[in-house]
Amino acid sequence: MTASMIGDELEAELISVCRTAIGDGLRSITYFTADDYEQLYLRDDLERDADTERFVANERLGFTSQQTYGDSELGDYEFTIRSFEWGYVTRVIDGEHGVYVTTDSLNMNEFDEVATAIRTVLDDTAP
Predict the structure, then answer these.
(1) Per-residue model confidence as pLDDT tens digits over 75-103
(2) Full-model pTM
(3) What is the spatial distance between Cα 105 and Cα 123, in angstroms, rounded to a whole number?
(4) Pfam families annotated for this entry (predicted)?
């Protein structure tokens, strides 16, 4: 993992929109591309030694999924939610880069809100 693969402005903006949409239920934020990743935020009460690389490897599969679902009758891909016993992973991919956040329990509107906010930030930024 590179020490700082994105600029301070993009990092601050992603943290801000995620914290605004999710509040204290936000666990972590990770920015990734096909080749690299950077964890931008980790809530204080969580362990720092989690195997982030495993999550990133899985979420990178979304670059291929975008192509798979490209001409779907469902419309354009927006985001992915994965449900776990104690939380959720929400992934947003825009072009060559993506972000996934881990959260406590949220309602569907909150998932949609954070995904829309992340997509807006990513859409304005080329990797």
Answers:
(1) 888 899 999 999 999 999 998 999 999 99
(2) 0.90
(3) 26
(4) DUF7522 (PF24366)
